[in-house]
Specification:
With 113 residues, this protein is an all-beta fold. The protein contains no helices and ten strands. A six-stranded mixed β-sheet has the order 2-10-9-4-5-6, with no helix packed on it. Strands 1-3-8-7 form a four-stranded antiparallel β-sheet, with no helix packed on it. A hairpin with a 5-residue loop joins β5 (46-51) and β6 (57-59).
Length: 113
């Protein structure tokens, strides 16, 4: 059974930074594109960053220049470095392989103004 465990969220002031981590339980991690998603209260889950198995990255316009996604295949971990955080970044953040894995519990990010 594939398991994804997100961590690193917390409460931060606007302009601050957080680094999220997502650990996968299976070795197929290295052959999947991985993404970070977020869901704010009352809103649909959205993709904010994606990294291919080869390391190519894509970002939602709302986070370009502020967020950086990376992966360590040996550790089966994907990261999301979030800088210059804004109150509108407040959400529960999840990682997944294009929605093809069971969703984890996510990690809460709260940005105060």
């Amino acid at each position: 059974q594939v398991q994804l465990v997100e961590s690193g969220g917390g409460l931060v002031q606007a302009g601050g930074s957080l680094r999220l981590s997502c650990a996968a339980s299976v070795s197929i991690f290295s052959i999947n594109a991985m993404g970070w998603y977020r869901q704010a209260p009352g809103k649909q889950r959205e993709l904010v960053a994606r990294i291919s198995s080869g390391g190519s990255t894509n970002y939602a316009d709302s986070v370009k220049g502020r967020f950086t996604i990376s992966r360590d295949n040996a550790k089966r971990t994907v990261y999301l470095q979030m800088n210059s955080l804004k109150p509108e970044d407040t959400a529960v953040y999840y990682c997944n392989a294009d929605g093809r894995m069971p969703w984890g519990q996510g990690t809460q990010v709260t940005v105060s103004s």
